[in-house]
Amino acid sequence: MEKPKAILIAGPTASGKSALAVALARLFGGAVVNADSMQVYEGLRILSARPTEPEMGGVEHRLYGHVSPEESYSAGIWMREVEALLPDLGARGLVPVFCGGTGLYFKALLGGFDALPDIPAEIRERWRARLVEEGPAALHAVLAERDPEAAQRIRPSDPQRILRALELVETTGAALGTLQKGAGAGLVEADGALKIVLAPDRAFLRQRIAQRFDAMLLEGAQAEAAAFSARPKAATGLAASAIGIAELQRMRAGELTLGEARDLAVTRTRQYAKRQETWFRNQFDASWLRFADPAQALADLTERF
To answer: How much is the average pLDDT of 74-86?
Structure first.
């Protein structure tokens, strides 16, 4: 088969995407490009499960840990950064290997994402301040008044999407549904891309998630969460929704034991993985190759190419 012009690797958290991305980058001569909305933030290497230097294995990685948690970030900004780096990778003959769990990023890459307007700083800051003061459920109630259709599609426990919808409604005066028509310009030609989604066995993934969070605690997740929380305005940014931060904050405040905080974080991660799996199953068509684990994917693709 012909060498792919781009590789897209999606899958739920803890499914082994990062290791597969490195292996395929070596196989095809590529660079790994982050497609995870939490791994863009610096200061959250452990809790966002960002690859370590040894895990990168000498393969070039781009768009990891380069955004301050205090800064605003969105799929639109990510697209502009990807657009800027693709010519450099192409000039050096490197295949971009997009790897992550943020389905919207992959949708954007392939042209299914609208070019939405930038949000004025004062609007963004006001809604983020209200989120900290009132919580996501209260803001979801506001969204239900201003854009009932969007509120039906967004869970009350999803602060990132609630904020985005409120910001866009205020900025444009239009309902979210009228702005999102899936007609944006893509950066990757679907026909020339190798598209992979990892779909592990549910019981295996649940075990992996628990083991990984235990490893995070051993590596220093508590200290990382404390340092993050001490940063000015950290709580007002989307990075604050990273799983583990709130739980470990409550532990430091004496509201939870370490074991209780750990169990809550593991449960939230499992719930998040389930939502990711549902999204990938509903949004990705038959052109995406599905594998139960990264070893199976690598063996199959090595044989094909």
So the answer is: 91
